[in-house]
Specification:
Layout lengths: L13 H19 L6 H28 L26 H16 L3 H29 L1 H9 L5 H15 L1
Length: about 170
């Protein structure tokens, strides 16, 4: 979660909390309800889990390294736009990672309740990314506006494509 280190303000985390509760509910449903899913759904689930790992974990390190928090501040107390590493691919890698985890759990035991919980969690993770966008626009200014034109919110396919096109256009 980005924070303005100068003012100590943080964006609203309500959508994030709702998404978290829905995600936990999804995991509980997967434990309680056993559905025989086809092999392709199991494989899809494993792919989602595998892709989720770097998107959910790397931002913690990359914010601390590229966001330049002041010494002694939390890793998310960024003083500049973190636009390198995983943040050069998507603007909200954590929410992309969490969304992939939710999809992975939804694929494990697909049923009406798990689809409903997963859909709700995905919506609230997306809403939280919008809340944080507004926060970053306000607190990081034009540097963030430029970053937004270069890097997609959570579409990593588009992020890879844009990086590739920038590299090929330089040659």
């Amino acid at each position: 979660m980005p924070v303005n280190a100068v003012e100590g303000k943080v964006p609203s985390a309500i959508p994030d909390l709702v998404a978290g509760f829905l995600s936990v509910g999804l995991i509980v449903v997967n434990i309680v309800v056993d559905v025989d899913e086809p092999l392709w759904l199991t494989i899809s689930s494993l792919v989602c889990f595998g892709l989720a790992l770097p998107f959910a974990a790397l931002p913690f390190f990359h914010l601390a390294k590229y966001g330049e928090p002041k010494p002694g501040d939390a890793f998310y107390a960024t003083t500049r736009v973190a636009d390198r590493g995983i943040y050069s691919l998507v603007r909200h890698p954590q929410y992309l990672g969490y969304s992939l985890l939710v999809l992975g759990f939804a694929f494990l035991d697909p049923n009406v309740l798990s689809v409903f919980l997963a859909g709700g969690a995905l919506v609230f993770f997306f809403v939280q990314s919008i809340v944080e966008e507004k926060f970053c626009e306000k607190n990081l200014g034009s540097e963030y506006d430029v970053y937004k034109t270069r890097v997609p919110r959570m579409n990593f396919f588009l992020g890879v494509y844009r990086i590739a096109m920038r590299r090929f256009s330089k040659t």
